[in-house]
Amino acid sequence: MFTPKALREVYDGLASVRERFGATVPDLARVALHYALARDSAAPALVGFRDAEQINTTITSLGEPLTGDEIAWLHRSLAPLRDAFASRTAKRHAP
Description:
95 residues; mainly alpha
């Protein structure tokens, strides 16, 4: 699923997110974590780490929560990317 082409699509699909929130790893980690946590107040956000630097980045990147408007903007902005990958997944699992 995450072929070089698919990774490029994800990278390109996140361009507006990088423009709005920043392109550094901490910027994107903050957005990803807060977006995941905002989807459902009872849902956990599972985070993986490869090294101590990633642990530190994740812990220190939480910062300010996203506003309701930012969550709505992310949901709208990420819809084409989400839909493209959902369609691919559905095709792969079709009988």
